[in-house]
Amino acid sequence: MKFTVKSFSELTINELYAILQLRSEVFVVEQDCVYQDIDYKDQKSLHILGFKNDKIVAYTRIFKPGDYFKNASIGRVVVAAKERKYGYGHDLMKASIDAIDYFYRITEITISAQLYLKKFYETHGFKQIGEEYLEDGIPHIRMDLNAN
């Protein structure tokens, strides 16, 4: 797995199409969740693209503090279903955390995590903050890394 970080304007048309296809495949079709994925936040974020054999199979977008939460944040964490068995989700999270540290020089990160992935995010040092809530009809929790 090779990771690349790009701003919105650096994405090629084909990369953007592949990102939107992957997000739709997992979040809309697999999770059966109708929601507004195209939210005008892609333009503010940096995009972490995970390539395998020149195909995007893993992706997140990261935000600097204040653009989404008070802290820096990671969102749209997605790995293609057929690629999950290889542990790429862990590689993707490490690449995303490292990118926040490198580009924003900060280690405090907040995420809105799907509840069923709580243990996954805990393996990366995130801790639940507050109670469960619904986001787009799916149970979520706020989780923070290194936050006070």
Key structural traits:
148 residues, alpha+beta, Aminopeptidase, 7-stranded mixed sheet, 7 strands
Distance between the termini: 33 Å
Number of helices: 3
Main sheet: strand order = 1-2-3-4-5-7-6
User: Level of helix content?
Assistant: 25-40%
How would you describe the shape?
globular
Strand content: 35-45%
Which architecture does the CATH hierarchy give at level 2? 3-Layer(aba) Sandwich
Q: Roughly how many Å is the radius of gyration?
A: 14 Å
The strand count comes to 7
Q: What characterizes the major β-sheet?
A: 7 strands, mixed
Q: What's the order of the H and E elements?
A: EHEEEHEHEE
* Computed structural class: alpha+beta
Q: Which blocks of ≥5 consecutive residues have pLDDT under 50?
A: none
CATH fold assignment = Aminopeptidase
- Regarding CATH, which class? Alpha Beta
What is this entry, summarized?
With 148 residues, the protein is an alpha+beta fold.
Structure description:
With about 150 residues, the protein is α+β, with helices and mostly antiparallel strands. The protein has a single domain, classed as Aminopeptidase. It is about 25% helix and about 35% strand. It is built from 3 helices and 7 strands, in the order E-H-E-E-E-H-E-H-E-E. It has helices at about 15-30, 90-105, 120, and strands at about 1-5, 45-50, 55-65, 70-80, 110-115, 125-135, 140-145. A 7-stranded mixed beta sheet has the order 1-2-3-4-5-7-6, sandwiched between helices. Strand 2 and strand 3 form a beta hairpin. The radius of gyration is 14 Å and the shape is globular.
